[in-house]
Amino acid sequence: MPVTLLLTVLLAALPEPAVHARRVPELLALLAPTGRAWPVGGPGAVLRRFEAPPARWAAGHRGVDLAAEPGTEVRSAAPGVVVFSGTVAGRPVVTVSHPGSGTPPLRTTYLPVAGTAPVGAAVVAGQPVGRLAPASSHCPSSCLHWGLLRGERYLDPLALLGTGSARLLPLAGGEH
Fold first, then answer.
1. How far is CA 112 from its chain centroid?
2. Quick count: other Cβ atoms within 10 Å of Cβ 133?
3. Smaller CB count within 10 Å for the chain: N or C?
4. Rounded to the nearest 5°, which phi and psi values hold at 75?
């Protein structure tokens, strides 16, 4: 049984379940000691990994594709604030900014996702931000495309969960 459902069932048994149900996101944050959560599924859900483009304008895969069916609840991968929920290039997108993650702050993107959390809403890791929209041509089957950015630079979102890839860069001045 998913943790969210289990907490909801347990809280429903308490007096005034509606009052306690509002604490589910807070309790989920306590269960996620890293302050991070899989947006959908888990480690086995990865269909396609991040592939950094060699240049900003070049081809690459600027995120991770996670297997999920349309209608699946999509959760914030880290605590933050919903800064965008709308349509980009004909696809629904949700973006969460993560204050305190550096300058500029990290942002996670989720698409195609129809937002359920309003812009400006503070969210904890694991809190729902939307539902997966019907499949696009991006994946052979239905998937969530999960991205991570710092400013204009795309990063591997799996790094948030400690499972991303690392790439060593040369020191300044070409030293080895």
1. 12
2. 18
3. C
4. -110, 150
- Reported as a single tens digit per residue, the pLDDT across 19-33 is 444 554 444 444 444
What the block records as the tokens of 25 is: 């996101």
Place of tokens 């503070």: 122
**DSSP character string of 36-72:** ---SSS-GGGEEE--B--SSTTS--B-SEEEE--TT-
pTM: 0.73
Residue 102, helix vs strand vs coil:
coil
Which residue's entry shows tokens 């400690």? Answer: 162
Cα gap 62→155, rounded to integer Å: 7
Rounded Cα gap, residues 77 and 46, in angstroms? 15
pLDDT at residue 86, rounded to an integer = 97
Tokens 């880290």, residue located: 78
Based on the number of CB atoms within 10 Å of its own CB, is 41 exposed (0-12), middle (13-18) or buried (19 or more)?
middle
Residues 137 and 63 sit within 8 Å (Cβ to Cβ): no
How far apart (Å, rounded) are the C-alpha atoms in residues 41 and 35?
Answer: 17
